Amino acid sequence: MNNDKPEAQMLPVLIDNQLLLFEDDYGKRGPQCVAQAHRKKRCTNPAPPDHAGHHGFTRYLVRELGGYVTPIETHPPYFDHYIKQRCEKHLYSSDPDAVAPTWELFDVDRHKGRIPLERASVWTPTGVQRMWLDGRTGTDTATAAERGSDIAEVLSRALEQRRDPEVTTKLYTAHDKDGRLLYIGISDKMGDRLQSHVEGSSWMEFAANISIDEFPTRRGAEQAERERVKDGKPLFNVVHNDHPSRDVDLIQYLIEKGRTDLLALNVSRG
Fold it and tell me: So what CATH class is 169-263?
């Protein structure tokens, strides 16, 4: 097949369990017979006899691409017509080929941009695709009870993802040069958040190092923040940090640093 012909249309045909493509000069009407006919010209007949060898078009799931192509689906005894790309008249004749058959086995990397692809509407890569569709024919293979169970599970996961979207969130912990825990926070835009601390948070002038942990979801980071604040009792956190000695500890720290001015009500803590 000449891949330098971008104008050529690609027609997929499902033969047994293989998806094959060829450049369709007919424009999605099927392969033309390649036999040399009279006067050394190529036969103009379609390769399958009047398309009797296929059962129309079917959806074929290409798992690597996460979507469907719509090929002609053919069955015995018409495989030979497609593979040899010969019409009924020339299938067993000794006439030579006028052109070589243009079949090529579908390759995800080489052909994904040359065929129409209908994206599968699924919540997960293995969810609805595997539960509802057979990879070759696209037919429903689940029983009603299985479908109900599968759908409930998929919808549950989908709802959970809606409540807790998969947005990478960072939890950051600030200590001073003596290792004193100053502040714990979370953000999915770490650069912007640290800049806001530099501009308006009183603890930043004491920070000697900031460690960062990454969580796949914001809710996971929020839970970890809550637990670490309660356990660590950082000096400048207010939320989740209601232990009895919090205010006393903060005042004592600022006295040690000679910065009691930071106790003013309009000074940002976090």
Answer: alpha beta
